C-alpha cells in the first residue's frame, strides 16, 4: 500500500521505499519528497513488535477551491466554482464538484467574489 501525499495540490503516490519515515515528538510522519508537506502516520504495530505505519483516515480533508468568472456573450460574467475534495485513502485523485453558473454579474471581480463566498459557505457546512 503506497503512501499518498495529503496535500491536495500534490497528491503524490509514493512507494514506501521512496519516503523516509521519521519519528518526531508529535509522532511518526514523512515529508513528501515532491512538495515537502508533513504527512502524519500512525504506528499500528503490536506493542513491543515492529513498527507498522499507516496513514490516518482523515475526516477533515483539505479542499481546493477554484473560483472563476466566465465571460458571457452579452458582456456579463457568470460566477463559476470548482471544489476538489480529497478522497483520503480511497484514491489518488480528488473528487471535483462543479457549479457552472452561480449567478450573473456585470463585473468579473464581483463574479469571482460571489463564487468564493458560496465556496466559503459550502465548506463551512461540510
Ligand atoms: Zn506532496
Q: How would you summarize the topology of this molecule?
A:
Elements: E1 3-4, E2 13-14, E3 21-24, E4 27-31, E5 38-40, E6 42-43, E7 53-54, E8 63-71, E9 77-85, E10 95-99, E11 104-105, H1 108-125
Antiparallel strand pairs: 1-2, 3-4, 4-5, 6-7, 8-9, 9-10, 9-11
The structure holds zinc ion.
Walk me through this protein's architecture:
The protein is mostly beta strands and 126 residues long. The protein folds into 2 domains: 3-54, no CATH class; 63-125. Helices cover 14% and strands 36% of the residues. The protein has 1 helix and 11 strands. It has one helix spanning 108-125, and strands spanning 3-4, 13-14, 21-24, 27-31, 38-40, 42-43, 53-54, 63-71, 77-85, 95-99, 104-105. A hairpin with an 8-residue loop joins β1 (3-4) and β2. The protein is elongated. The two termini are 28 Å apart. The model has no long low-confidence stretch (mean pLDDT 82). The structure holds zinc ion (ZN). Zinc ion is lined by residues 5, 7, 10, 12, 32, 34-35, 37. Zinc ion (ZN) is lined by residues 5, 7, 10, 12, 32, 34-35, 37.
User: How large is the radius of gyration?
Assistant: 20 Å
Ligands: zinc ion
Sheet bearing the most strands, described? 4 strands, antiparallel
Low-confidence stretches: none
Query: Helix and strand string, N-terminal first?
Result: EEEEEEEEEEEH
**SSE-based structural type:** mainly beta
Q: Given the C-alpha coordinates, what overall shape results?
A: elongated
- What proportion of the residues form beta strands (DSSP E)? 35-45%
Number of extended strands: 11
Distance between the termini: 28 Å
